[in-house]
Amino acid sequence: MRIYNTLSKKIEEFIPYDEKCVTMYTCGPTVYHYAHIGNLRCYIFEDVLEKTLKYLGYKVKRCMNITDVGHLTSDADSGEDKMLKGAKRENKSVLQIAEFYTKAFQSDLKDLNVKWPEIVSKATDNIDMYIEMIQTLLEKNFAYTCGGNVYFDTSKLEDYYRLTNHKIDDMVVGVREGVEKDSNKKNQADFVLWFTKSKFEDQELKWESPWGYGYPGWHIECSGIGIKNLGNHLDIHCGGIDNIFPHHTNEIAQSESYLGHPWCRYWVHSEHLNDQSGKMSKSKGEFLTLSLLKEKGYHPLVYRFLCLQSHYRKTLVFSYDKLDQMAHTFEKLRFKVKSIQNGEQGNIDMQMVELYQKRFQDTLKDDLNTASCLTVLYDLLKDDMSNATKIKLIKDLDAVLSLDLLKESEEPLSVDISLESYILSKIEERKIAKENKNFSLADSIRMELLENGIILKDTREGTLFEIKK
Ligand code: AMP
Ligand code: ZN
After folding, report:
1. Which atom of ligand 1 is nearest to the CA of 31?
2. Which residues contact 131 (CB under 8 A, 6 or more apart)?
3. Where are the alpha helices (H) located in 207-248, listed in sequence order?
4. Domains of the chain, with CATH numbers?
5. DSSP reduced 3-state for 196
6. Using CA atoms, how far apart are residues 431 and 83, in angstroms rounded to an integer?
7. pTM check: above 0.90
8. pLDDT tens for each residue of 15-42
9. How far is the CA of 29 from the centre of ligand 1 (A)?
10. CA–CA distance from 95 to each of 109, 119, 194, 201, 208 (Å)?
11. How far apart are CA 256 and CA 123, in angstroms?
12. Nearest-CA residue for atom 14 of ligand 1
């Protein structure tokens, strides 16, 4: 498998530490609010990566954290505490907020067929591990205390910026909602490992520590949870590109200083989903959640399908037009698969199976090219082989794509399949009428569909339809 490594800025051959089991750490959500569909794009990508590795024969041990303490609105240790913000917003305790939004997140992943990672650990369940790490960092002189807090001293590292290749002055990322100067810091890039003094006097969750009653910084959580559960050598660490700096940069700094050797080999980041106005946010514009899409009548897997159509390293701009188009394309795909399931099956042709399996693998091994993988799927649907062979291959591929292609669909994606077949037959009828220059018949077909709320659009790719909501 070849994958883009943010650390080397190159597509590299993937070689795990232990051929028998790949270790994978993926940053989890901060459970102060619903995940937006941008966040969910990242989890879909990680799910496809995990399933691809399994498809290629690896055993995968994956771990994810749930951030329920320590994450401030600016990733650079300033701004408001996200959990506290959520609790105030809803007049609840931090723990109630964390529990509620963890469940909501779980339900989103389930709807999207994203597998829940084998190990999921709450930040608040690992305080001892952070304390142990911070103590070691202080002993090794990589950390200092000032004004009651413990900070990581970034000036102790020559290559602190190696994941980003940028100095802090040039960076605008990571500073989500404004930065304030912390006069305790020796260097601008230093970050908090443990807070005892913060402006949040009403911080609900605090623990005893050698430095006083307080709570951990956000970055130490992922290093602590990762090392505790996956060991001292990590194969893959994922997240969205906004995590590269400062979060992952800080994770590398503290983990490697603590361990005394390199930690993670492959840093794999997915690009953002943007809305029309730019970066997606939970505070500005329409808050795009999966529930909102469901309320508007879209099946969650239509969103998964949309994500799979683009490469994980390309920015994806969300629009309802695009989602409509995807719903339509996906409906057609499911319709086609259904007709294959309903047709005469015949025998499985193992030669064809092997040929297509190789093609699937080649696309996925090529830096997780899911869009090409879908093209191979379309090729196989058209190819001359028995339905039984096709079904075997679809099942095979759906282990990675997880689009429920063979599942009896209880709910329509956005359009009823029988309605779709009716519309497609009308489009075909209209096409023949036009070829025969019978334009009045062609027009009457268009009008008849329009009266039923179905709009036809003639494009270079053929006639598409849209159903008025
Ligand atoms: P958070 O809950 O803010 O810590 O984010 C959870 C995950 O979503 C992180 O891995 C982020 O990098 C990722 N993420 C945040 N915003 C977006 C976006 N607009 N598109 C894709 N991924 C995102
Ligand atoms: Zn993390």
Report:
1. 2
2. 194, 209, 210
3. 218-230
4. 2-270 (3.40.50.620), 290-401 (no CATH), 417-467 (no CATH)
5. coil
6. 57
7. no
8. 999 998 999 999 999 999 999 999 999 9
9. 8
10. 21, 20, 20, 17, 18
11. 20
12. 39
